[in-house]
Amino acid sequence: MAVNKDKADTVHTSWRKSTRSSGNGECVEVSVLTANIGVRDSKAPDAGYLALAPDTWAAFVTGVRDGRFDLP
To answer: CA 20 to 30 Å from 22, out of 7, 16, 40, 64?
Structure first.
């Protein structure tokens, strides 16, 4: 995983918010990049983004779906 501030990889990409976003501004945005999945803070899109390998992103999504990150 890397924090990337280089916009070259995001020039021709679109970012999308989760459909479960509550609209209160506390959101992340996701984009399919050239070789990775980008994740950024919707409140600070120019602050950079996390670049996750596709298998890392898939494992995270699976964990979310399985409830592994739910608060008690």
So the answer is: 7
β strands within 1-72, DSSP E: 2-4, 16-17, 28-32, 37-41, 49-52
Contact 27, 21 (CB under 8 A): yes
- The confidence score (pLDDT) of residue 72 equals 87
φ, ψ of residue 29 in degrees (nearest 5): -120, 150
Residue 3 neighbours by CB under 8 Å, 6+ apart: 48, 49, 50, 51
pLDDT beyond 60 at 35 = yes
Determine, yes or no, domain membership for 3.
no
Number of domains in the chain: 1
Q: Are 16 and 27 in contact (CB under 8 A)?
A: no
Range of the domain at 64: 26-72
